[in-house]
């Protein structure tokens, strides 16, 4: 799109502090599916409610399900009960194409409808293709778009491809997918979503670190003893047993969410908070993580499965009793890891990460445990309630920051004990933060890739977890431990950290 | 004479029937008291409620509100209180009365609000103070406000129904002023003078006009109609503009269009109507464009439509936020910056009204 001679819009002055999507069409593949109904359409409606979508905008749904335009419009309306008036305007413009992704005719029909929309609405041949499909068809759809020229719109608009994790099942398949996408789309056209990065509080790790002078000097091996990352869920595999059997906690959480949080925590300050500045530093941080050998896996990781137990007052079955799960399954629902980082800032500071299903509490947090004071000037008895300082970034729920430090207990005696200084987002900011999909959809349409994962990030994250996958698939795999649902994981995970003289936090 | 801090036995809901509304957990009252007693009672309110977790203050600003002698502070301050967990702030409601007995009567509340963000969180506690200032002290409010201002946080002064005097020393304590031209400027004949007063105020600190805040959906939608590249050039060939609405809002919108589109007064027509409506016609080469933004009676939404003579058209709609003062105030104090666009609109509107 050429904007060189475009006159300014004087009426937009003072209203332009908010980023808005330019005129265009959002093409959703897998439009009849659950993700579209549950996440994408409600996110779009919220964007329209905030007028972050343009007037010249439409959704084109594509899926195998046979359906008319009107039926798709009904689905759009059903997806958002109580929608604002702007949603009706978008629905009115939206159309549906049914067809198989392997049929070239599907994409010819798509091309014709997009051109019609350009003519009628002025959508300026700007297209965002969202693949809300199973990952198996990512490459097929991308190739078919390229075949009819929809990867390079003729009207000079943009074409962007949005895909969501998983990006492959391992390093090899991830590279295969990447190569297939790059045959049709350039890297700067590909937007890989890890919805964790759309969460405000994940982004706030950047704000906390790089907008404040007081934290960054402490953010290194000089003051930090170790880092703990916890991604805990109370839910089990729900109805996704057969999917989860092929994924497991390592692929489902560690390779993506944990690695994203880890890279934001470890990265060096970027030159600028822009897409390349941030992503370059994230990749550098991930590249500094020591990749274990297959032989080391048993010493630096624990995998486990939940047994039956009690969670939030409810009796729950064990993993192998869940629907769609093999009775002899070896798929892990819990992973604990110890990682080391070889760089100037973090050398010698272990990173302990754990994730699991059916844990006692839903919580995601990063805890920086500081070193103890070099010399305690008080009698030991006066400081029995004192622990080393900790800075905890609470990502969900109750988003905020907690600083643990020692304070004198009021009274004649000089007693010191831990107190918490709490900051809670909900207590300081007006707006309910945008949902992750809302944020990421808008970013993709605006063309801001900062919160999307670059090809080399995906590759580096797979390199870190690949030895675990190899060890677990070997002839002599480390055992799958068990833990009772509603506990913080298996005893072996405690051993993993306790042999270093440390303990897991209780979030 | 001062009362002891009192724990309120049951939640006193700020908004009847709204379980989310903040409720008062502690209160204190003193009649004919010295300012020192009022100041000392504030931390006591928190200390008494520390078992509830009120020891930690969460506050994003101090709001000072100046009301008329016959206003009921509890009623007038309700919009601030309803901001609750959105904008926890220390609210100071001043009721100066030069003609009454020279005493200070005070009442303090500690309010508790539940967090608004999903995922839970801690309750938020914030203070509200009413000060009736009688006698000569009513002319020296700046000396009274100072001790109550939270350090390091913005001080917002809200004048709900009148414009302040630019020479009032109280304004020196303000980081920003909030006014409502729809209420404060209800006399058509005074529009030009009032707008010039506002421009003078805006020379010293940011001024946020709640009326301008309420007009934002119209502005956003009209600006949005010109986002597509092929429509943008129509802005440079506007032939006529009409703005209807109540006096005040329609003047400011007309001023905005005049200033931003560099229109002459004869290209602009104004008329009276219940709801604001903007119609703009433009001719670009051989193409005509009609652009309309309107609110229909009985709806809480604004519609916008662009229609070109070549058949292309697009439309958009926005829901209006609820019509409460709280909603407008919340939007206003989220953005306490000098607004040059509003200032230009005001200057043009003042010229139009002269």
Feature tags:
heterodimer, A: 507 residues, alpha/beta, nine-stranded mixed beta sheet, six-stranded parallel beta sheet, 13 helices, 17 strands, 33% helix, B: 354 residues, six-stranded mixed beta sheet, 27% helix, elongated
TL;DR?
The complex is a heterodimer of chains A (507) and B (354). Chain A is α/β, with parallel strands linked by helices.
Instruction: Tell me the distance between the termini of chain A.
Output: 49 Å
- If helices are DSSP runs of H or I spanning 4 or more residues, what is the number of helices of chain B? 11
Overall helicity of chain B: 25-40%
The helix-strand sequence of chain A is EHEHHEHEHEHEHEHHHEEEEEEEEEHHEH
Strand order of the largest sheet of chain B: 1-2-5-6-4-3-7-8-9
User: How many beta-strand segments of chain B?
Assistant: 15
Secondary-structure content class of chain A: alpha/beta
Enumerate how many helices of chain A there are, as a single number.
13
- The average pLDDT value of chain A, as a whole number, equals 90
Which blocks of ≥5 consecutive residues of chain A have pLDDT under 50? Answer: none
Radius of gyration of chain B: 23 Å
Count of extended strands of chain A: 17
Shape of chain A: globular
Largest sheet of chain B: 9 strands, mixed
What portion of residues of chain A belong to β-strands? 15-25%
Q: Name the helicity range of chain A.
A: 25-40%
Task: Report on this structure.
The complex is a heterodimer of chains A (507) and B (354). Chain A has 507 residues and is of the alpha/beta class. Chain A has 13 helices and 17 strands. In chain A, the strands form three sheets. A nine-stranded mixed beta sheet of chain A has the order 16-15-14-13-7-12-11-8-17, sandwiched between helices. The longest helix of chain A is centred in the middle third of the chain and has 26 residues, at 241-266. Chain A is globular, with a radius of gyration of 25 Å. With 354 residues, chain B is an alpha/beta fold. Helix content of chain B is 27%, strand content 30%. Chain B has helices at residues 35-48, 73-76, 78-83, 141-145, 181-184, 191-202, 210-214, 216-225, 249-261, 325-333, 340-353; strands spanning 6-13, 23-30, 61-66, 89-97, 104-113, 124-134, 155-158, 176-179, 207-209, 238-245, 268-272, 277-284, 287-294, 301-308, 313-319. Chain B has a nine-stranded mixed beta sheet with strand order 1-2-5-6-4-3-7-8-9, sandwiched between helices. A six-stranded mixed beta sheet of chain B has the order 11-10-12-13-14-15, covered by helices on one side. The longest helix of chain B is centred in the first third of the chain and has 14 residues, at 35-48. Classes of the chains: A alpha/beta (507), B alpha/beta (354).
């Amino acid at each position: 799109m050429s904007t060189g001679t475009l006159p300014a819009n004087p009426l937009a002055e003072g209203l332009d502090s908010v980023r808005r999507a330019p005129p265009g069409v959002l093409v959703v593949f897998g439009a009849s599916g659950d993700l579209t109904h549950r996440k994408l359409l409600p996110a779009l409606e919220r964007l329209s409610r905030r007028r972050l979508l343009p007037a010249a905008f439409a959704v084109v749904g594509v899926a195998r399900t046979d359906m008319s335009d009107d039926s798709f419009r009904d689905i759009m309306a059903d997806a958002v009960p109580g929608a604002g008036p702007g949603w009706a305007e978008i629905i009115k413009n939206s159309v549906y194409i049914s067809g198989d992704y392997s049929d070239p005719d599907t994409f010819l029909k798509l091309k014709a409808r997009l051109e019609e929309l350009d003519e009628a609405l002025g959508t300026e041949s700007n297209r965002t293709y969202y693949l809300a499909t199973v990952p198996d068809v990512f490459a097929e759809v991308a190739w078919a778009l390229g075949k009819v020229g929809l990867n390079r719109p003729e009207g000079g608009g943009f074409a962007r491809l949005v895909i969501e994790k998983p990006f492959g099942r391992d390093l090899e398949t991830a590279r295969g997918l990447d190569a297939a996408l790059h045959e049709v789309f350039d890297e700067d056209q590909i937007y890989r979503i890890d919805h964790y990065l759309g969460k405000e509080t994940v982004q706030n790790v950047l704000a906390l670190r790089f907008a404040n002078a007081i934290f960054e000097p402490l953010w290194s091996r000089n003051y930090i003893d170790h880092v703990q990352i916890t991604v805990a869920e109370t839910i089990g595999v729900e109805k996704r047993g057969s999917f989860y059997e092929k994924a497991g906690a390592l692929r489902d959480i560690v390779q993506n969410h944990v690695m994203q949080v880890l890279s934001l925590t470890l990265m060096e300050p970027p030159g600028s908070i822009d897409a390349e500045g941030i992503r370059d530093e994230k990749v550098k941080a991930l590249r500094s993580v020591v990749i274990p050998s297959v032989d080391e896996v048993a010493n630096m990781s624990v995998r486990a499965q939940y047994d039956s137990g009690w969670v939030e007052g409810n009796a729950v079955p064990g993993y192998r009793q869940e629907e769609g799960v093999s009775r002899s399954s070896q798929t892990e629902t819990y992973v604990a890891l110890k990682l080391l980082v070889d760089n100037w800032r973090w050398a010698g500071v272990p990173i302990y990460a754990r994730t699991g299903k059916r844990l006692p509490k839903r919580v995601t947090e990063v805890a920086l445990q500081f070193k103890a004071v070099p010399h305690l000037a008080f009698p030991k008895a006066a400081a029995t309630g004192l622990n080393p300082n900790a800075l905890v970034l609470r990502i969900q729920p109750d988003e905020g920051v907690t600083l643990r430090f020692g304070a004198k207990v009021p009274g004649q005696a000089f007693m010191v004990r831990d107190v918490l200084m709490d900051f809670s987002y909900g207590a300081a900011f007006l707006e309910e933060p945008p949902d992750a999909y809302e944020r990421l959809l808008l970013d993709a349409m605006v063309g801001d890739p900062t919160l999307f994962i670059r090809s080399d990030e995906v590759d580096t994250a797979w390199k870190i977890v690949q030895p675990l996958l190899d060890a677990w698939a070997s002839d002599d795999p480390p055992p799958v431990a068990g833990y009772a649902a509603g506990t913080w994981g298996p005893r072996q995970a405690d051993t993993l950290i306790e042999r270093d003289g440390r303990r897991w936090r209780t979030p | 004479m001062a009362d002891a801090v009192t724990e309120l036995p049951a939640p006193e809901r700020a908004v009847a029937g709204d379980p989310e509304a903040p409720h008062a957990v502690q209160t204190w009252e003193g009649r004919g008291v010295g300012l020192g007693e009022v100041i000392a009672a504030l931390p006591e309110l928190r200390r008494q409620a520390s078992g509830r977790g009120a020891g930690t203050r969460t506050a994003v600003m101090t709001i000072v509100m100046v009301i008329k002698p016959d206003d009921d502070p509890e009623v007038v301050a309700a919009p601030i209180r309803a901001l609750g967990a959105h904008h926890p702030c220390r609210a100071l409601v001043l009721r100066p009365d030069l003609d009454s007995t020279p005493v200070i009567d005070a009442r303090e509340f500690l309010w508790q609000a539940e967090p608004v963000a999903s995922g839970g969180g801690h309750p938020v506690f914030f203070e509200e103070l009413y000060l009736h200032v009688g006698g000569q002290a009513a002319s020296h409010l700046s000396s009274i406000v100072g001790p109550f201002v939270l350090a390091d946080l913005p001080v917002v002064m809200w004048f709900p129904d009148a414009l302040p005097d630019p020479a009032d020393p109280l304004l020196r304590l303000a980081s920003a002023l909030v006014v409502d031209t729809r209420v404060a400027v209800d006399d058509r004949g005074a529009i030009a003078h009032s707008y010039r007063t506002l421009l003078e105020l805006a020379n010293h600190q940011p001024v946020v006009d709640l009326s301008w805040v309420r007009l934002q959906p119209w502005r956003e939608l009209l600006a949005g109609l010109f986002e597509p590249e092929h429509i943008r050039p129509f802005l440079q060939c506007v032939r006529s503009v009409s703005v209807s609405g109540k006096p005040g809002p329609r003047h400011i919108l007309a001023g905005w269009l005049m200033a931003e589109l560099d229109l002459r007064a004869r290209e602009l027509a104004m008329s009276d109507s219940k709801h604001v409506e903007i119609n703009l016609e433009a001719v670009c080469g051989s193409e005509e464009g009609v652009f309309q933004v309107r609110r229909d009676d009985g709806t809480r939404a604004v519609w916008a439509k662009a229609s070109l003579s070549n058949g292309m058209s697009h439309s958009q709609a926005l829901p209006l936020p609820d019509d409460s003062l709280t909603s407008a105030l919340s939007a206003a104090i989220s953005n306490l910056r000098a607004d040059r666009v509003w200032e230009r609109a005001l200057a043009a509107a003042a010229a139009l009204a002269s």
